[in-house]
Structure formats: structure tokens, C-alpha cells
Write a structure and sequence with these properties.
about 80 residues, alpha+beta, two-stranded antiparallel sheet, 2 strands
Length: about 80
């Protein structure tokens, strides 16, 4: 697939590639130069760890859960 660079240096990514890679308007792309080519990578929307942070809920407090796993504290 080919695309031309506009006078402003803009390039249109062909629709089949946007669809295949899930690239939408407003997405952030990272550009890197390699010998003889440009590599474009879609920047992740959110860090995977941040995406799940705080989703775990325990039926007991953290201290109680640790005590259940380790056993009671020694005096």
C-alpha cells in the first residue's frame, strides 16, 4: 500500500491498515528511524499494570488476609 506525503508532512495511513491495527483518530503513534525505513508503533492507551490496579477486592482486610496466609504472629 502506498500513500503520499502532503505539503505539511502529513501521511494518511490506509484504512485497511488502520482497521487491522485498531488505529483510530486521536491515537498516539511513536516514530523511529531505522536504516532505510521508518517504523511506526501504536502507543498503548494505558500501562497494563495501571489498567488492573485496584480491581482486586478481598473479603477481609489486607492484614487479615496476610495473617490467614502466614499464620498468626508470634509474640
Amino acid at each position: 500500500m502506498k500513500s503520499k506525503i502532503s505539503e505539511k508532512g502529513q501521511v494518511t495511513i490506509p484504512k485497511p491498515l488502520r482497521d487491522q491495527l485498531g488505529i483510530r483518530a486521536g491515537d498516539e503513534l511513536d516514530f523511529e528511524a531505522e536504516p532505510g525505513r521508518i517504523v511506526v508503533t501504536k502507543v498503548a492507551d494505558q500501562d497494563p499494570v495501571d489498567a488492573v490496579w485496584g480491581t482486586l477486592t478481598l473479603p477481609v482486610s489486607v492484614d487479615e488476609a496476610i495473617e490467614q496466609m502466614r499464620g498468626p504472629r508470634e509474640p
